[in-house]
Amino acid sequence: MKTTSKPQEVKLKHIVEIAQSIGLDEDDLELYGKYKAKINLDVLEKKTRQSEGKVILVTSINPTPYGEGKTTTAIGLSMAINRLGFKSIVTLREPSLGPYLGIKGGATGGGASQVLPGTDINLHFTGDIHAVTAANNLLCAAVDNHIYHGNTLNINPKAIMIKRAMDMNDRALRNIVIGLGDGQKGAVREDGFVISVASEVMAILCLSNDLEELKERLGNILVAFSYDKKPVYAKDLNVHGAMALLLKDAIKPNLVQTSEATAAIIHGGPFANIAHGTNSIIATKMAQKLSDYVVVEAGFGSDLGAEKFVNIVSRKTGIYPSAAVVVVTTRALKYHGSSVAKTNITDEGMDALLKGFENLSKHIENLKMMGLEMVVALNMFPDDTPSEISMIESFCRKQGVEFAVSRAYDLGSEGALELAEKVIEIADKRRKINFVYQDQDPVEEKIKKVAKTIYGALDVQFSKSALSTLELIRKLNIEHFPVCMAKTQYSLSDHPELLGRPKDFILNVNEIRINSGAGFIVAICGNIMTMPGLSKDYAALHLDIDKDGNVLWV
Amino acid sequence: MKTTSKPQEVKLKHIVEIAQSIGLDEDDLELYGKYKAKINLDVLEKKTRQSEGKVILVTSINPTPYGEGKTTTAIGLSMAINRLGFKSIVTLREPSLGPYLGIKGGATGGGASQVLPGTDINLHFTGDIHAVTAANNLLCAAVDNHIYHGNTLNINPKAIMIKRAMDMNDRALRNIVIGLGDGQKGAVREDGFVISVASEVMAILCLSNDLEELKERLGNILVAFSYDKKPVYAKDLNVHGAMALLLKDAIKPNLVQTSEATAAIIHGGPFANIAHGTNSIIATKMAQKLSDYVVVEAGFGSDLGAEKFVNIVSRKTGIYPSAAVVVVTTRALKYHGSSVAKTNITDEGMDALLKGFENLSKHIENLKMMGLEMVVALNMFPDDTPSEISMIESFCRKQGVEFAVSRAYDLGSEGALELAEKVIEIADKRRKINFVYQDQDPVEEKIKKVAKTIYGALDVQFSKSALSTLELIRKLNIEHFPVCMAKTQYSLSDHPELLGRPKDFILNVNEIRINSGAGFIVAICGNIMTMPGLSKDYAALHLDIDKDGNVLWV
């Protein structure tokens, strides 16, 4: 549980001091206590530097249940770049309360490479996700209320496309029936909750450049279809203004500090398996204005966060990564190369490690295809042997990519200096970004291109429902939207148990959703839950607080 | 719509300056931007004054759809007491987002007597209500998850006593079925959402003296009954620690300022028709530590907020009001005395006004019964005539209570000086508080005493369900709990259309709920919704934001 690994001895600096270290003053901030602040949006216009900071995209191989330490490595890397005398800001997503109270634990790094104050960041932070929840749920209430009060838009209650949201792992709310009870004029209908970070409102918050665009995008959310099959948008219900109002503070990036008192911006939190999976573009742009190197974490492996960063974020914003970092652990490589049961993975030998390289090789190939130079970063664990490390290093050399050991967890910036040096070196040799698909490709084609080139699928199988939504997309004239693939993070395929580098598999697209506010098409592959559940022994059972307000893990 | 009446010309002072005016310094605060702050709880121990501030309880006659300006009067009164050279802090509840986006508009006063910054207070403020929502929903998810993972506590899914919460007016969530869908091991069952401010967690937050008590109370929430009819509490599910953790900041009172830059504390937001209806006791106690006069608003009329303040808050905490203020308007009095349709109420003549005195007389009687000295405050409107005003004054004189005109809306403190002087005068003549019922009275008896003495009911009719819960209460050995009456605010009875001073009515107790964490029994009288709905033309349709972040009312 990462939340307890917070180094209690770290003396936090006042957030105004952190702000000053990146050229901001107190007037640029809205303080949230002494250690958190929102940064005013006019900083985007006010601050000008010689050139914009370079974006370093941190990704990984397919994650395993152990956790690969991607956030820890990203934080350590940014601290190390600062240590080398450059300015660097790490930008991360805001942790969702659901997984924090569920199985995942914190999302604020670990050991000597953390963002702080960890508990506050992991809990309500500055309230952004709650604001997203409220904006989403206002829209949902507005739809049912519209039907209740006469339904002048002629909305078909069986064709409502949005769901209510909650920032909680609550499986019982996945599939529900609403509108029951006596004397109800409104519709009784099937509905369900998604976790707030999977909502389109969260994606919109993260893809908007300013309040005006935010409001416009919110207005463009496809809410429902009428009985005569016409699309109904949020703007038809006239609540997009109030939704934007609810997000007026949430749109401002949040400034915190790393365990070495460098600046970190944490803003927006779309999941990477079901949404586009990286922090807000406002946060990235602001960090570019204020530093030389922006270390951005994209969720999960190159097949998810990195692919979507390039094909959605870069395409829409012109923010191109200057280099990538692929985080690996020997444990995760062995896991991918192991054919036996997955306990005691560290006892696995060189064979498993060698076989596990297949997974890494695909991620390297993916990043190369997208035109990204990279460093493979081994997040080193105490029981990693020198021969294992040198095997990984020589594999990378054969692949023609850089390799560095990171001991950021134990040593902070000092443990990531080699990584930082190599990143800076390759970031100067940036190549042109290659999109996996083009705007004019039909959506079906876009999905196939991602599946075949990035996942290594043989082909794609679309369900009937998916095919009919593809038809609808053509009718709605939104074929130019990029696709946001929703897929398990554990495998390059849509089957979580297919580790390593699966081949000859068919990707199943079970459902396609239109996120016309976010401006992308979501393709749901395999069994992807948009509302997680709690395990039997979940984190909240162990979280406690003493009478003085200290967090306990019991 | 009160939100648009914010005087834009008011130049806000930095909240640290406001804090200094009541003897606090920056170290006592957690800033939330420049104009909001949380006050650290150790202020309760640290600050000592000669004597604790006197509590002035602001109540009203039964409200009408027009709004009586109780909050405006409370704010104006506190500003006026400051103007007279004493220290005064006004303490209010936090507005709920649901009604703000619904029909009610803001809850931050109006005209020249407001708490500021109004929009921030009305929106997410410092996130307290969102934290309450999260804590409540964690508990609900924990129950269904427990059943899903084997149900070792043997919980009967048909005997779950808690509901999920959302801070939104969403009628479609009142009655729902959850747990549907494929492959679900958990229970399919009826459920429903309450608005967050109606949740027991909100009541607990407002009735706890510190974090330790908060956690204990949360643990005592009655969650369900087992198949063998044993009570299951939140502590049996072991999530009360995490719930308290979620509330670690929410428990701290929020400091803002009035439109005359005096201190206001806004904390906790239980509805007064369905919960106990006043700000947190921590807020009141803290204000008592920091000022001479604490002006506390209790929701709705003396039959709701004031009755519950005395019989729940005073009983549990020893905070006794030193005096009461009863806010009236000529419009509201005429409304209560009018026999015709309720449009153009100002055209109604003296007859309606005279007849409306019956409603006021009952509230005066109620406050006297509870041992409270009072001033009747006429919240004056431009079309009030001198003869109307003098009629109200002479009525009050006949009743033996003080009367003052308040023009706080137009003139701020200057308009409430007479009211302030009279309040200060009578606050020195405090009598002993009389509880309406005693701890040892059976719950049934307690309900009857409130109904007969405070509402003027002839008798009480309990539904079958209510009677069986009364039986349960005896078995659980919690007969000593006070009762929290849930009733329409519009009438002294449980029928909103019975205006004036209804007589010979029977109060219907349809349902009784056990809030064993809050430590009271909720008696639901008549048709009381714990989840409001939106009207056809609700506030969110008119709320908007421009590109610079300014709130618009369109």
UniProtKB/TrEMBL annotation, chains A, B:
Its EC number is 6.3.4.3. Keywords: ATP-binding, Ligase, Nucleotide-binding, One-carbon metabolism. It is an enzyme of class 6 (ligase). GO terms for molecular function: formate-tetrahydrofolate ligase activity. InterPro entries: Formate_THF_ligase (IPR000559), P-loop_NTPase (IPR027417). ATP binds at residues 64-71. It catalyses: (6S)-5,6,7,8-tetrahydrofolate + formate + ATP = (6R)-10-formyltetrahydrofolate + ADP + phosphate. Transmembrane segments: none annotated. Coiled coil: none annotated. Pathway: One-carbon metabolism; tetrahydrofolate interconversion. It comes from the Bacteria. Belongs to the formate--tetrahydrofolate ligase family. NCBIfam families: PRK13505.1. This is Formate--tetrahydrofolate ligase. It comes from Caldicellulosiruptor morganii. The gene is fhs.
